[in-house]
Structure formats: structure tokens, C-alpha cells
Design goal:
Layout: E1 5-11, E2 15-22, E3 27-28, E4 33-36, H1 43-61, E5 68-72, E6 76-77, E7 80-81, H2 96-104, E8 108-112, H3 113-124, E9 133-139, E10 143-149, E11 152-154, E12 163-164, E13 167-168, H4 170-173, H5 175-180, H6 185-203, E14 207-211, H7 218-221, E15 231-233, H8 240-253
Parallel strand pairs: 1-5, 5-8, 9-14, 14-15
Antiparallel strand pairs: 1-2, 2-3, 2-4, 6-7, 9-10, 10-11, 12-13
Helix pairs in contact: 1-2, 3-8
The structure holds beta-D-glucopyranose.
Protein name: ROK family protein
InterPro entries: ATPase_NBD (IPR043129), ROK (IPR000600)
Pfam families: ROK
Length: 254
């Protein structure tokens, strides 16, 4: 395996996914392994699951010493998780990077999941070579955001939690809200219209990219939006976190 090979792991509210990534092409070199997120999402349980997953993935790669990047749905500052919107409160203020390094016996790089997805799109996807301000949003259990300017990532923007109509708007605009409230595509698109118009007013972006699993149904809702800014689906959807975490691990090792 070349030095452009790394392992990416994406920790989510329901599943933890990982694979070996070829960073010269932005493709997966192994099957994607997925394990359920342990109930309660407590740090020690998640570390144990990631340990099992990493073993399976590195056995497939037959390369134990590849760089490992892990992404997680929280603010990540200097290796510490600083928020917990849809995960256990035990993550707040935790030295997560150190905890994983100790548990896995391997150096890792730890980042926010939307930042990983945004970085992946900037390297291998819809934001590649795009000048100016690009905002990637992931619409899933929560709303994650990555802000890029001329391809440079501004980390931890957390724009899913913008207060609109007096509420944390992730609770209205996430795909989980559509499912929970059984909203039609039209009703949900009305909420997305409000959300993206607010981002437009605040950032005057040059491009919006929409990621998360639901972006495979982009034809159902993107054409319903009326925005000044072009809005397009992400290229990597469910693998973006894995690709970006792996790419950032190598960038940070260099
Ligand atoms: C979290 C973010 C995360 C996003 C997507 C939000 O609730 O605050 O850190 O990126 O969900 O998982």
C-alpha cells in the first residue's frame, strides 16, 4: 500500500462505518464495514466498537500501520469533543482523540463529521476546484455544515444550530425531522427554503452542496428551492465522512 492509503472511520448516531481509502483517487479500496452504534453512545462503548471495526478493516487491508482518521458528530477542538447534540453528554469536554489513541493503541486524527465530508468534497467531489465560499450541509439525524473558502476549511461552523423562528433549526430541517413528523417533500422543502435563505443572507456563498443519505433523493427536493446560490448534491454522500477523515489524517501526519 502506498502512503496515499489511509483508513477512515465515520461515527454516527446509528452506525459506525469504516474502510480503507485510496487518497490519490478518493475511492474505497476495501468493502465498507458497518457496525451498529452501541446504545446510549457512551465513549467507552464506542471506543470498543471502533476497535473491533478497525481490526476488521485493517485485516482486510493487510496493513496494520495506515494513518487512521475518525469523524464524529460534535465540535472537535484540539482533539477534544466540545458538544453533544445527538450523542451522550459524556462527550462534552472529553479528550476524545487521546481516549481513542489509548483504546486503539494507534495514533489517530479526530474531526467533526461534516468537516470531514466537506473536506472530502473539496478534494474528490462537488467542491473540487470551486473558488469562493462553498457551504456543504449534511441532512441526517442532525444538520452538519462545512464552510470552505477557496478550498480552505473553516472548522466547526455548526450552522445546523442556527436559531430561526426561535428554535434550533436542526430540529426542523434535518432529515430526521422529515421522518419524525412524516413531512411531504414539499413541506420539508419549505423548511429547507427558510434554512438556506438564512445561510444565503449571512454568507453570500457561491455554492451550496447537500450531503447525507437523503441527497440521493435530491430530485425530490432541490428543484423545489428558490435560491440565488446554485445548490447541488454531494458526490460522495454516505462515504464522504470516511473519505474526509482518512484524507485529513494523512494531511495532518505530513
Ligand atoms: C452536530 C454537528 C454535526 C451534525 C451532523 C449536529 O447536531 O452538532 O457537530 O456535524 O449534527 O452530524
Amino acid at each position: 500500500m502506498s502512503s496515499t492509503t489511509a483508513i477512515g472511520i465515520d461515527i454516527g448516531g446509528t452506525g459506525i462505518k469504516g474502510a480503507v481509502v485510496d487518497l490519490s483517487t478518493g475511492t474505497l479500496l476495501s468493502d465498507r464495514v458497518k457496525l451498529p452504534t452501541p446504545k446510549g453512545g457512551r465513549p467507552a462503548d464506542i471506543v470498543d466498537t471502533v476497535k473491533d471495526l478497525l481490526k476488521t478493516v485493517s485485516d482486510k487491508a493487510a496493513a496494520p500501520d495506515l494513518p487512521v482518521g475518525i469523524c464524529f458528530p460534535a465540535i472537535v477542538k484540539n482533539g477534544h469533543t466540545m458538544s453533544a447534540a445527538n450523542v451522550s453528554d459524556k462527550w462534552i469536554g472529553l479528550a476524545a482523540e487521546k481516549l481513542f489513541e489509548k483504546g486503539l493503541g494507534h495514533p489517530i486524527h479526530f474531526v467533526n463529521d461534516a468537516d470531514a465530508a466537506g473536506y472530502a468534497e473539496s478534494q474528490f467531489g462537488a467542491a473540487k476546484g470551486v473558488p469562493g465560499v462553498v457551504i456543504l450541509t449534511t441532512l441526517g439525524t442532525g444538520v452538519g455544515t462545512a464552510l470552505l473558502n477557496d478550498g480552505i476549511l473553516v472548522p466547526n461552523t455548526e450552522l445546523g444550530h442556527l436559531q430561526i423562528d426561535g428554535v434550533d433549526y436542526e430540529t426542523r430541517a434535518a432529515y430526521s425531522a422529515k421522518e419524525r413528523e412524516d413531512l411531504s417533500w414539499e413541506k420539508w422543502a419549505g423548511r429547507l427554503q427558510k434554512y438556506y435563505s438564512t445561510l444565503e443572507a449571512l454568507f453570500s456563498p457561491d455554492l451550496f452542496i447537500v450531503g447525507g443519505g437523503v441527497s440521493k433523493h435530491h430530485q425530490q427536493f432541490l428543484p423545489l428551492l428558490n435560491l440565488k446560490t446554485p445548490i447541488i448534491p454531494a458526490v460522495h454522500r454516505n462515504n464522504a465522512g470516511i473519505l474526509g477523515a482518512a484524507a485529513l489524517a494523512v494531511k495532518n501526519r505530513a
